[in-house]
Write a structure and sequence with these properties.
Helix content: under 10%
Number of domains: 1
Largest sheet: 11 strands, antiparallel
Structural class: mainly beta
Length: 315
């Protein structure tokens, strides 16, 4: 379950719907362990998919406590700690979508609910560092409306041990290190300059904020609107010259150039209205009298959407 959720929260993988980070992939869901009754009322035994993978366990819900005499109940918890790293900290495969560092860790979730009318409030957050955090707040009324607001930052480390022959990495202008000239330096000169450069990290950070609302206008019509803004900044390998010499082992290479400072901004909004039309069916009871009832027989969905993705601006 953890591996699947971790993949889901990596928005760089294409999903971009799961709130979480590498230390909290589930978005504070299931931190109290698994429900001892399992996913079924019939058996608590873990079940598997047709291909043999275990289904994720049903999370144990925290016991709700009353808030006064107004019908509201609350539940939640807070985790505060310190993260320390050791070992091969520059391993790119380990740092991908993590970029962890020593520091204070804060995670929390808080929920309010009122069973009488279905109103609820849910707030979840996790802060590992400036580039690895999320905050999500949801409130609404079951069967009526739902409002969500969020902010999150996700790092994407592409190299943890880069040695660049360029000055100005991370800025809008790159210049060769002293001692090198464009189209005038040998491979040995480039290798010598590169070998004495300090190790650096090439990464891109995605910051995204957004707000959305779902509203049940009437039993047939549902409205939806959303607004989000995303900004990506950082440096990444951009490609470069390479050479191979197959008859001689270890006599080949590739040298990627770090792209100049990349800042991309994207703003998008969407507004939708959906209508579900129900058919009419007539049924007869087995008793002596008959009755005519309206039941859902066929459902035809009509959706009208307006979307506007703004063009990405680079500088």
């Amino acid at each position: 379950m953890i591996a699947g959720l971790a993949q889901a929260q990596d928005s760089g993988g294409g999903v971009d719907l799961q709130f979480g980070n590498w230390l909290d992939p589930s978005g504070r869901i299931g931190w109290d362990g698994c429900d001892p009754e399992g996913n079924s009322w019939l058996s608590a035994e873990p079940k598997r998919t047709p291909t043999g993978f275990l289904y994720g366990c049903a999370p144990q819900l925290a016991a709700a406590k009353p808030v006064g005499d107004n019908g509201w109940t609350w539940s939640g918890n807070v985790a505060l700690g310190y993260l320390h790293l050791s070992g091969d900290e520059r391993n790119t495969n380990w740092r991908r979508f993590r970029d962890a560092d020593d520091g204070v860790v804060l995670q929390a979730n808080f929920s309010l609910a009122r069973a009488e009318d279905g109103r609820y409030v849910d707030v979840r957050m996790s802060h590992l560092d400036r580039d690895n955090q999320y905050l999500r707040a949801v409130f609404g009324q079951a069967g009526r409306y739902k409002v969500q607001a969020f902010a999150r930052s996700t790092p994407n480390v592409l190299s943890g041990n880069a040695r660049s022959i360029w000055d100005g990495v991370g800025s809008a202008h790159l210049t060769l290190k002293p001692g090198l000239s464009a189209a005038g330096s040998s491979a040995a000169q480039v290798a010598a300059i590169s070998a004495v450069q300090p190790l650096s990290t090439l990464s891109v950070v995605r910051d995204k904020v957004g707000v959305s609302i779902n509203y049940l206008l009437n039993p047939r019509w549902t409205g939806y609107a959303s607004l989000s803004h995303e900004e990506r900044s950082g440096a990444r390998p951009f490609g470069g010259p390479f050479f191979f010499n197959y008859p001689f082992p270890a006599n080949g290479g590739v040298y990627e150039i770090p792209a100049p400072s990349m800042t991309a901004r994207s703003t998008s909004w969407a507004a939708c209205a959906s209508s579900a039309m129900s058919g009419v069916a007539i049924s007869t009871t087995p008793a002596r009298s008959s009755a005519t009832r309206t039941v859902p027989m066929t459902t035809r969905c009509r959706t009208v959407c307006i979307r506007w993705p703004a063009p990405i601006r680079r500088r």
